[in-house]
């Protein structure tokens, strides 16, 4: 979402007079001392007041509240006396003043009051309120308070149905919540209103990509990149082009919770059916364990080994990955054996943890949970090695900071043994609400991560070195 700036006119004194005649179609911009501005069709000074003529009537502003008056591009439209000494009138770029995050709600309510009480300034104040609501939504989105973001954006669009920033924000929020259908409705209208917006086109590409419509995603992203080149988007385009070159001709099969793509020439129908049947069965097990039901079908792409590495650029020892889609190199198998099931279940757990936390879970937590769900457990030799590593540290506060698969599994096992798996699910829930990982552990388990790491290290010593 774009950064929104807002100019408030809170505190300006307005005195309303009956409407006059003889307005101009051109508009000067009157800048007020507190950062607000008024677009004036006609204006004049009368003693200590600035009298502003608009189509709907007249607004009177105290002279001391005026900072400057910028003429319209076609020339000065105001009439009457010149501005007083000390009031600059040189045309300058129009500026907006951001409201600090802590003041957003207060200033928004003040602008709503101005809309109610000063009908002749309704247009300007409505525009300011829309900008302010967009800024409030941007803050809420950044803090992952998505319900608050949706409320602010819907109010903004009720006031300005074609506002670009509100449309963009609403579509982005629906996308992060997995609400593809709602996002599509917003984006269809937004791109109709703003067909050359690279931000909206990039969001439409993300929507198409998540729905496994790669050709449409590529077209949207390429148009966005042509309008405004971005390195990150260029990388997305290159990644998708690699995937398309490998997956060209892949077959597609739909199940209730999954979309499966596979190389039909190397993956038989029996394996396709076995994969979908196995994953549908495990889906409900994970939905109950994580107390989470993904809102959209999960995409699984089954590659032959070589094509997997060509599409993903993963290292040769990678058995599968999840990047918003499950990608596994098991194409060509005659039957679904235990090792392939473990790989699929491991990656499926990543999909649930990512969805539950809005993709904020750190790698060590993701991998620790996925290994446990897969059915792995820490072997005695591995536990002893970890215990000796802990004992050998002079500064115990450093323990647990470095990632390894064995350490991630061992720590998650420790938390589950001590607190129960449901407490770990509470941690994921807190992260989905916007908490960082340390705050989530502190809230759900009442322990700091540093305390948990050290308790885990001591438990390893007791178990393996006594």
Can you give a write-up of this model?
With 466 residues, the protein is of the alpha+beta class. The chain folds into 4 domains: 15-139, no CATH class; 164-246, Alpha Horseshoe (Serine Threonine Protein Phosphatase 5, Tetratricopeptide repeat), CATH 1.25.40; 251-359, Neutral Protease Domain 2 (Neutral Protease, domain 2), CATH 1.10.390; 373-464, no CATH class. It is built from 17 helices and 12 strands. Strands 8-9-10-12-11 form a 5-stranded mixed β-sheet, with helices on one face. It has a 4-stranded antiparallel β-sheet with strand order 1-6-5-4, with no helix packed on it. A hairpin with a 3-residue loop joins β8 (251-254) and β9 (258-262). α5 (180-193) runs antiparallel to α6 (198-210). The longest helix is centred in the middle third of the chain and has 22 residues, at 269-290.
């Amino acid at each position: 979402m774009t950064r929104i700036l807002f100019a408030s006119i809170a505190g300006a004194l307005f005195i309303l007079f009956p409407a006059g005649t003889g307005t101009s179609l051109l508009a000067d911009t009157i800048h007020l001392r507190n950062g607000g501005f008024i677009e004036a069709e006609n204006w004049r000074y009368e003693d200590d007041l600035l009298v502003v003529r608009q189509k709907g009537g007249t607004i009177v502003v105290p002279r001391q509240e005026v900072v400057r008056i910028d003429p319209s591009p076609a020339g000065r439209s105001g009439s009457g006396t010149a501005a007083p000494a000390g009031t600059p009138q040189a045309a300058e770029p129009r500026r907006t003043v951001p409201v600090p995050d802590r003041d957003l709600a207060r200033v928004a309510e003040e602008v709503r009051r101005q809309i109610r009480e000063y009908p002749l300034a309704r247009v300007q104040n409505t525009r300011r309120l829309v900008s302010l609501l967009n800024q409030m939504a941007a803050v809420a989105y950044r803090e992952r308070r998505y319900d608050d973001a949706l409320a602010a954006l819907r109010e903004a669009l009720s006031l300005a149905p074609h506002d670009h920033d509100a449309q963009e924000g609403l579509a982005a929020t629906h996308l992060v919540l997995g609400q593809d259908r709602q996002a599509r409705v917003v984006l269809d209208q937004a791109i109709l209103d703003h067909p050359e917006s690279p931000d909206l086109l990039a969001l439409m590409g993300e929507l198409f990509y998540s729905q496994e419509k790669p050709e449409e995603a590529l077209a949207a992203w390429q148009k966005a990149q042509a309008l405004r080149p971005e390195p990150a988007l260029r990388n997305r385009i290159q990644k998708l082009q690699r995937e398309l070159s490998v997956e060209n001709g892949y077959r597609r099969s739909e199940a209730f919770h999954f979309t499966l793509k596979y190389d039909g020439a190397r993956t038989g129908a029996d394996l396709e059916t076995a994969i979908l049947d196995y994953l549908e069965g495990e889906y409900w097990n994970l939905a109950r364990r994580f107390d989470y039901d993904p809102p959209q079908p999960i995409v699984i792409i089954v590659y032959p080994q070589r094509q997997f590495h060509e599409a993903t650029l993963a290292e040769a020892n990678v058995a599968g990955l999840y990047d918003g889609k499950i990608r596994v190199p098991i194409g060509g198998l005659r039957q679904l054996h235990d090792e392939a099931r473990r790989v699929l279940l491991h990656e499926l757990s990543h999909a649930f943890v990512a969805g539950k936390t809005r993709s904020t879970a750190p790698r060590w937590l993701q991998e620790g949970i996925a290994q446990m769900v897969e059915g792995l457990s820490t072997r005695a030799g591995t536990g002893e090695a970890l215990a000796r590593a802990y004992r050998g540290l002079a500064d115990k506060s450093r323990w647990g900071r470095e990632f390894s698969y064995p350490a991630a599994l061992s720590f998650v096992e420790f938390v589950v043994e001590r607190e129960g798996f449901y407490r770990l699910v509470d941690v994921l829930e807190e992260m989905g609400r916007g908490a960082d990982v340390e705050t989530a552990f502190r809230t759900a388990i009442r322990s700091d991560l540093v305390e948990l790491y050290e308790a885990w290290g001591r438990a390893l010593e007791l178990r393996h070195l006594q």
